[in-house]
Design a protein that fits this description.
Elements (H helix, E strand, L loop, with lengths): L1 H40 L4 H6 L4 H24 L4 H30 L3 H6 L5 H21 L1
Helix pairs in contact: 1-3, 1-4, 3-4, 3-6, 4-6
């Protein structure tokens, strides 16, 4: 009887491990997509601004955008209810919507509020506008994540 219990347990663990791997791969792909969308919305090459120029404003904007995407991905997984295929599709769609919302948020703040991302990334010291925009990223991510749930 021990062997009979071990087989269903092994199958369940195997399916669970594959689901985790699938969500992790999708999550990483969405984070990469999010980084490149933030890069497109940011003047200059975001990787260069962070690595070579050590620009804290660019790093904060990228980090907050990726944290927001992570919130959306986590909420999508949570709301999937164990249905792997539907959960992966929902995570993909909601993740992409969240990424678009982040980019639009940057553009809106740049145009409407007058906080220029271009100017923020030209400044070598941390700017209050970058902090505000970073919190906005997180708020958009949280709002989107809660809407998913």
């Amino acid at each position: 009887m021990t062997i009979a219990l071990a087989v269903p347990l092994a199958e369940a663990l195997g399916r669970g491990a594959l689901a985790i791997l699938a969500y992790a791969v999708l999550g990483v792909l969405l984070l990469i997509a999010g980084f490149y969308v933030i890069d497109m919305a940011t003047p200059g090459k975001l990787g260069k601004l962070i690595q070579q120029d050590r620009n804290p404003n660019a790093a904060l904007l990228a980090a907050s955008g990726l944290a927001a995407v992570g919130l959306i991905v986590a909420a999508s997984i949570w709301s999937s209810g164990g249905a792997l295929q539907e959960g992966l599709l929902a995570t993909l769609v909601f993740g992409l919507v969240g990424i678009v919302a982040q980019a639009l948020g940057m553009v809106v703040f740049d145009r409407v509020v007058g906080i220029s991302v271009r100017e923020l990334t030209r400044r070598p010291e941390l700017q209050p506008g970058a902090v505000l925009l970073a919190v906005t990223h997180l708020a958009i991510g949280l709002i989107t994540a809660v809407a998913v749930i």
